[in-house]
Amino acid sequence: MANTDRPKGWHDRGYLPHYDGGAIAQFVTWRLHDSLPQPILVHLKEELKIHGIENISRETLILVEEFLDKGIGACYLRRLDIAAMVRQAFLFHAKRKFDLFAWVIMPNHIHILLRPLPGIHLHKIIHSLKSFTAHEANKILGRTGAFWMREYFDRYIRDKEHFQKAVRYIEKNPVKAGLCKEPADWEFSSAAERKRLERQRPAGE
Asked: What would the pLDDT profile of 81-102 be if each residue is shown by its tens digit?
């Protein structure tokens, strides 16, 4: 019988390759269902193949993230009530299912840097977060149907330098997209959360 508790390593679920390495840090991105029309995604991949790009998955992600920052689609995450609900889901599961290092809720996508706790698989964490938040968001919006795109992108963190680079990328995403001037100005982010906690800390600590 297969050991279902063992990390899967490289695997795919029909669309994108994923890496489940157990308790290692992972930079994960997922997006709203209407944030990137499928024909555009197919076109991006075909262009990369034409130019002989070797790491198609990595380069596709770079192009996808540039496109997402344009704010295409309904951008439901702009709504304060929905963004607050998603933030609460992150903070609720932190320390229960994963260590949470950095995160940002953009208008049509999410970046999160986390490390699964021992014995908890990355794909189960993401499925749980997406399933709960999709259900709650649809209730708020009074709608049914897909909320998130089915797949997600993940990149495992190689070393300390890569980790720090990932944190900077995540927290500066709203600045890069022209949504604010400083990372902590974006309310739904780890940068803003860290600033709030610092303000609440008693003087002298």
From this structure: 999 999 999 999 998 999 999 9
